[in-house]
Design brief:
heterodimer, A: 339 residues, alpha/beta, 8-stranded mixed sheet, 5-stranded mixed sheet, 9 helices, 24% strand, globular, B: 355 residues, 12-stranded mixed sheet, 14 strands, 17% strand, elongated
Chain lengths: 339, 355
């Protein structure tokens, strides 16, 4: 990975992580700026320029550091929040909402993990005062991959320490990466779940561009499970084709060889969906992708989806396959789908 | 015909020497024409470039199929040297209040970007700000791209670096070097023209337009504009998903026309589009067939039954005329036979096992 330029907020010039990262990317041009927003997103940088010149921004996250997650985000009945310590991703999934979200594909890494941690503590405390003993969830990776750059960013020990002190708070690290070398240095915690997004092999090849292949992800899952890390799985987004049922049957077979069905902490299933803006970006960026001309409709929440019978049929089939494979029904949830 | 846009005559000198351009009688001076190109000298700065490009495009759009901005630019990227030639990738702009959000990207480019400044960039601080966004700076490109975009014309840009980021006199006038740089620009442009004349496979449309034309102009069919668009989308989908080969599509059409017999061209086109849709989206077709089965008792009784064609809302709408007691009885019987739960089940994704 090469960063063309590294933009650094001036006040972080001597931050140890900045020094470490800039040393690692010694050939990148360094630029010091007042704040990230002075440059990032100020002009519309085409998404696919991430293929040829990607910049890195190092700064501090301001504003609301922990936010409530949208409805139907995780297992139901428990409150879900997400926190943002990065923008954008090194991978290039052709359905990804990031291509219509930020106006730049450049990677932003926020370094104020202490402040984010304090806010997580505060929200947990507030929740525990109102609902003593009830679980609360925090998700990393809403706008980035939670593990892909952890060898650079090094924040995992900080969050593991934090959550070891917050037994009712659960942390989810969402990833498509197999970059687990920093993770396996740590002692697993029952309330820190590493969740992998998986798709059938042929879909991974054509849709999850530049990501590790399915075999490598399953191997990472096996290794983490063997070391005692709780694992969650996301079958999301499911993209329809004529062999969808068969290919998910094969995927579940392969998954359960790496991770026994009863050991899956939870599994989310969701059918591909886009906001209008993202959908237009997908068509623009990947006009030859096989799913862009599928028969999508504007659905109940104005998102672009397959028609209702079709998506509920897909979800029903995949759910059935999971139950038949031994995944307890209460650990399966439908992501971002109406009741 | 292409429109070549330059800021200064000096930059265009080699182009004037290479082709015979004659002045065009227009609202302002600076527009020329040869047998293959229009050439426009806009003068320096985004305002002139914008106004004059829009005026020319507006007047000659029907003759033009491409716009190319050619000229000098200042280097912002330390890796660039004076004399480097660049086919620009993205075009940004920077005004008095900061960068413009809107950008334009060309499809023929190197991985280098250009930012258009509203005024001459002379100080190192300003240069530093601009270098956050682009590799070179000019005074016209964004305006030319914006004008081309307005008229839905593809636009490109070829620039030569006239100053590098280390120059103290960043925006110096380049009169002495202009003839040499103009020659270099011409040479790069001619090379581009040569490459362009050999068809690149990557630029070939996915499906040969001949198939689409064959269907659109078939004597037994008649497509409205929206149906023609739908045909284009369906054929593209069939091609991308490799549902059918071109030969199979034509065979399907022949079989369809001989089976459907005497219908109007409009009806045939509508039905053929439905057939292509069925091939492209078999699951949707099966869902619609299930709904048709569920509403069959009502339809067979003579009721007009409709449902949400987007398949989002699980209602059916029934319209039926009752003229006598027999009609009423018939409808009551049909409604008794109609099982709404079947519709509900379909919309819950319960489509049976034979899908």
């Amino acid at each position: 990975m090469i960063f063309e330029k590294i933009f650094i907020e001036e006040h972080l010039k001597d931050h140890p992580k900045v020094l470490e990262i800039t040393k690692r990317f010694a050939r990148s041009e360094l630029k010091y700026i007042k704040k990230i927003e002075d440059v990032f997103g100020r002009v519309k940088k085409p998404y696919l320029q991430k293929r040829t010149n990607l910049n890195l921004f190092l700064g501090e996250k301001k504003g609301q550091l922990v936010k409530p997650a949208p409805p139907a985000y995780g297992l139901s009945g428990e409150p879900h929040y997400y926190f943002v310590h990065a923008y954008n991703c090194i991978y290039e999934c052709n359905y990804c909402y990031l291509q219509g979200y930020f106006q730049s594909p450049d990677i932003v890494l926020f370094l104020n993990h202490d402040e984010i941690g304090e806010e997580i503590k505060r929200v947990t405390q507030e929740h525990s005062n109102l609902h003593p003993g009830q679980k609360i969830w925090f998700h990393a990776g809403e706008y980035s991959d939670s593990l892909a750059l952890t060898h650079l960013t090094g924040e995992l020990p900080h969050y593991f320490k934090l959550f070891s002190e917050l037994p009712n708070a659960y942390l989810e690290l969402r990833t498509k990466s197999v970059n687990i070398k920093e993770l396996i240095k740590l002692t697993p915690l029952k309330n820190v779940i590493v969740s992998f997004s998986l798709a059938p092999e042929h879909r991974t090849k054509v849709n999850d561009l530049k990501t590790p292949n399915l075999k490598a992800r399953l191997e990472a899952i096996r290794e983490l499970h063997d070391k005692g890390f709780p694992i969650g799985i996301h079958f999301d987004p499911i993209i329809y084709d004529d062999h969808v049922e068969e290919s998910y049957r094969e995927l579940i077979d392969s998954l359960t060889l790496a991770l026994p069905a009863e050991a899956i902490s939870y599994i989310s299933i969701g059918v591909v969906r886009f906001t209008k803006n993202v959908y237009h970006q997908v068509i623009k960026n990947y006009p030859e992708s096989d799913f862009v001309l599928d028969d999508f409709v504007k659905s109940f929440d104005n998102k672009i989806r397959y028609n209702r019978p079709m998506r509920l049929w897909i979800l029903g089939k995949v759910k059935n396959l999971l139950v038949n494979a031994g995944v307890p029904l209460e650990r399966i949830y439908e992501c971002m789908e109406e009741e | 015909m292409k429109l070549l846009v330059f800021a200064h005559r000096g930059e265009a000198q080699a182009f004037f020497n290479h082709w015979n351009f004659s002045p065009v009688d227009f609202f302002f001076t600076g527009l020329f024409k040869s047998h293959r190109y229009y050439l426009l000298i806009t003068g320096e700065g985004p305002k002139d470039a914008s106004e004059k490009s829009v005026a020319v495009l507006s007047a000659f759009k029907d003759e033009l199929d491409e716009v190319i901005n050619i000229g000098i630019a200042g280097g912002l990227n330390p890796k660039l040297s004076i004399g480097d030639l660049i086919w620009v990738r993205s075009s940004y702009a920077h005004g008095m209040k900061g960068p413009e959000f809107k950008s334009y990207t060309t499809s023929f480019h190197q991985n280098l970007d250009c930012i258009t400044a509203t005024h001459r960039v002379t100080g190192p601080e300003e240069r530093e700000v601009l270098s956050s966004f682009a590799d070179i700076v000019d005074r016209e490109l964004w305006s030319v791209m914006s004008a081309a975009h307005l008229f839905s014309l593809p636009a490109y840009s070829l620039k030569i670096v006239s100053d590098d980021s280390r120059s103290s006199d960043f925006c110096k006038l380049v009169k002495e070097e202009a003839p040499e740089w103009s020659k270099k620009l011409l040479s790069a442009f001619l090379e581009y023209e040569k490459k362009e004349s050999t068809v690149s496979p990557a630029l070939t449309p996915l499906r040969s337009p001949i198939l689409e034309d064959k269907i659109l102009t078939h004597e037994k069919l008649y497509f409205t504009t929206s149906q023609a668009r739908r045909l284009h989308t369906l054929l593209r989908g069939i091609d991308i998903k490799k549902t059918l080969s071109e030969k199979e599509v034509l065979h399907l059409l022949q079989e369809f026309l001989s089976a459907e017999g005497e219908r109007t061209p409009k009806e045939l086109s509508k039905l053929f589009l439905a057939l292509l849709d069925e091939k492209l989206n078999p699951l949707k077709t099966k869902i619609k067939n299930r709904i048709s089965e569920a509403i069959a008792p009502l339809a067979e009784a003579g009721a007009q039954v409709s449902y949400d064609q987007e398949l989002e809302q699980d209602y059916v709408q029934v319209s039926f005329q009752i003229r006598n007691a027999k009609d009423q009885k018939k409808m009551i019987l049909a409604l008794e036979q109609f099982n709404y739960q079947k519709i509900k089940d379909i919309f819950q994704g319960n489509l049976g096992d034979d899908l």
